[in-house]
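Weekly modeling sync, notes
Attendees: S.R. (lead), two postdocs, one rotation student

Agenda item 3: backlog of single-chain predictions. S.R. asked that every request posted to the team notebook include the full sequence so nobody has to chase files. The rotation student volunteered to paste the first one in as an example of the format we agreed on. Action items at the bottom.

Example entry:
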Amino acid sequence: DTEDGTTFTHSSGTVTFTGNTNPQIRNRSGESFNNIVINTTGGTPIVETQRDIAIAGNLTIVEGTFRSYGTNARTITVTGNVSVEDGGTLGGGSANTANHSFGSLTIADGGTYTATSGTTTITSIAASWSVDLVSGGTLTDNNGTFLFNSASDQKVRLLGTGNFYNVTVSKSDNDMVQGSNLTILNNLDITLAAVH
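Predicted structure, as returned to the notebook:
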């Protein structure tokens, strides 16, 4: 919690949330983080952000839930990779409507991403997959949109439970590459790119 007039500098470090309480993030002055790790234990603890949050590095949810606070829809912007591991959940709650932006998204066996009903933008290419829903992982579409707009090819595979609702591919000269069968439940919009 940064009070008005105070600042937080991430210094390229990592902030880890542990324990069995329900902590809240209030970066009142709009400070960004470098890496965040959610690794809570016991019961179903939830880490919530009360402000729009920017993470310059990676977001890793090892155990527990990370989402917007209460009914306040907040954007989550992660320049690097988002990894939701076994026992981790990203999203959910009544405020899951704001747009999010991730460098890449991996949902492991036992992990869950409850997508925003707004837009989840995937901005860059990971070493292997831009979106990787591993067998045993869960993607809840929430009638939302996935936007792929990297300047490089982006590889996508959905091997777990769940599908895309809307997909927009907006790329100047590169493709979205399927690594599995893909089911899009509503609309597919393609601008200056190909899906194969």
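Discussion: group reviewed the output briefly. The CA atoms of residues 114 and 140 lie 5 Å apart.
Action items: rotation student to repeat for the remaining queue; S.R. to check formatting next week.
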